[in-house]
Amino acid sequence: MSNFTFNCSDVPTETATDAGVAGAGVLLSFIITAGISLLFSAIIIFHEMRLQKEAKVIRKLLLSLSDQQVITGIGIQCVGLAKMKSMVSYHFFIIWMLSLLSTATHISTLFALVNDFKRDWVLRWLRQFFMFVNLVLSCTSGIFVLMQVMKNLQPTLPIACVWEVESRGAPSNAGISIAGTIAVIAGQCIFFALGIWYLHINNARWIKLVQLLGLLSLVAIGTAAAVRVILVSQAFGSPSVPLSDEGEKAWNFGQLLTLLLLILPLISAVEIMRGEMNVPSPVAATSDDESAILLGDGKGGVVRSSFQPNPFWGNQQSRFSKW
């Protein structure tokens, strides 16, 4: 049984490092995955929109990177919430920024691979489930960050102390920080609702506009989160809290492992190029598909994308088709 006692009355002079959530390898893994995923999403959207060709290898890579990012994003947020009675706001804030990178990754993947998710109801509902879990965890973490700013919590106290201590008075920049935190939480809720709507919408007039505006917004969000992580982390920047050592700058097997996992999607790409693995087309190959939905191709023509309904309570057409 742990001997750890939760104490908010004694303020430590410094705090221990936590390479498991703020190590150089962990941060680089999230940043690189998000950057590559956003780039691949843009390539797929513009490639299939303008050239009407399927970027099969990149689509498979993007799906693998997105799956990896959303799982690790949920995992690291669970770690942060589980350790909230010992984790300081510095580490908790970094986790929250990493959750934004995870959000940018899987929402941009949704915009680029929407037809793949529409065609398979299992993939569609799994994606919606993980999006919802990530949203709940991220909003919960955002509330802790908001309370920490509003109460001006001592940086070396555990983040859970925001519910125990009295406010020390808002700092001079509290207004901007509070407004920014609320805007990020609200933005995540908006993107979640937009993603669910986009998964079921059939109206071709809005698809390109949603893809482009959504992708641009996600690039901005991902870039801002990555820059913020780099600036405030010990691994790459200057932390705002006194740390007891420089463990977050050290490279060990755990830090290297997070980066080595990025190689796994490349194996699938090699198998595809060698013909050992097939990737289904994002559009229906024939016109006799009863669940086919017409989408504009940007040249006055149409392509067909199938929508597989949920067999338990779905129907043959998206319930948002009238929009």
Biggest beta-sheet profile: 2 strands, antiparallel
Radius of gyration (CA) equals 22 Å
β-sheet strand percentage = under 5%
Mean pLDDT across all amino acids: 80
**What oligomeric assembly is this protein in?**
single chain
Structural class: mainly alpha
What report would you give on this structure?
By secondary structure, the chain is mainly alpha-helical. It has one domain (19-281). The chain has ten helices and two strands; from the N terminus they run ααααααααααββ. The protein has helices at 19-22, 24-51, 56-82, 89-112, 114-119, 121-151, 174-200, 204-232, 253-260, 264-273, and strands spanning 292-296, 302-306. The chain has a two-stranded antiparallel ribbon with strand order 1-2. A hairpin with a 5-residue loop joins strand 1 and strand 2. Helix 3 (56-82) crosses helix 6 and helix 4 runs antiparallel to helix 6 (121-151). It starts with 18 loop residues before the first helix and ends in a 17-residue tail after the last strand. 35% of the residues are buried. Mean pLDDT is 80; it is low at 284-304 and 316-323. Keywords: Membrane, Transmembrane, Transmembrane helix. The chain crosses the membrane at residues 20-49, 88-113, 125-147, 176-200, 212-231, 251-270.
